[in-house]
What we know:
The chain is mainly α. Helix content is 57%, strand content 6%.
Amino acid sequence: MEAPxxxxxxxxxxxxxxxxxxxxxxxSGVSTAFVVAxxxxxxxxxxxxxxDDWIVIAALFFAWACVGLSIEAVQWGxxxxxxxxDVEQKQNxxxxxxxxxxxxxxxxxxxxxxxxxxxxRLMNPSRLHRMFLWFLAFGSQILLLxxxxxxxxxxxxxASQWNFSIVQTRKCWSPWLLVHYSMGAGSxxxxxxLYLAIxxxxxxxxxxxxxRKKIALCIALGIGSIASVVAIYKxxxxxxxxxxxxxxxxxxxxxxxxxxxxxxxIASCIPLLQPLLDLARGRRTFxxxxxxxxxxxxxxxxxxxxxRTIDRKRDDDMEEAGGSPGDHxxxxxxxxxxxxxxxxxQESILNADSDRKSVIHSRSGDGGGxxxxxxxxxxxxxxxxxxxxxxxxxxxxxxxxxxQPWRM
Length: 408
């Protein structure tokens, strides 16, 4: 790389390194806490770790790999002016900064897949819409990986970018090729983040639930829009890749790359942390009344008895809420249980197993007969009592528990 113009003594002494380290370590620590909380909820409380959880864990691994390489780059002089470094510092600052971009890009590309998986389960979009969501995720991944390819292929041999002894055989493209391509890829990535944040809000505002819950859900599911703002701002620092003062100009790009990745990771975890908030408040959506009781969240996705009936009904209701085409026939389960009809009459669903019975009651719109001891709740009549908060018919019609998307 060309040497930058002469600098003043103050510029030679300037060092962004401490601020870089403080920022990337702080945001990475916060992100790690959210991922740990997510894994605790999905693995310990719900006992149901799914593919999107593993994707987020992998993204966090890449994020910390980027942090580690960025710390090493700072130790060699990244964050200082290029002219203030000796040859060895210049070479290593370039090398570790370039290597750090690879896991950094993966850290904000992978969580998009986790977001699509969650939205497909929660919103149940049409087949065409699912294809579009996957197109956004895979399109972002492919375009962002193209940045990595150009970064390492722009000079031949590749090592000549950080090994100044390779001169005679060194051939390079214009650095602006990488800058312009990265701006395009970053813009598409920002659009993807924004779309994945806005889509659930549009669906939720079409449901018949109270405004307070709508706003809370839109914030929880739409916080990924912050990542799109970060991505847009980050594109303004991409020009540093073409500047001769590499170690100084790219320092902000390193920071914003890590911030973008960690922001998306945090945003992908927030919608799933409702059970943890309930535990902190001393609440249980499911409570055990038997001996040695364990948290009822564990029973939710076990796939047995009443839980399976509720899950299948939720899937049917969320399909209607998501606007997917097709008929919505009531499901019939063991013991003659049927899905809820769109009427105001008293309905009971009886589910019988070999060793336990479950009864689901919904409120009567006309005051008809039936057991009203626990209106709008679930009673398991053996050793465990499972209770839901009361919800209106519109809540049941559009999704049995719309304010807890983490259960999908």
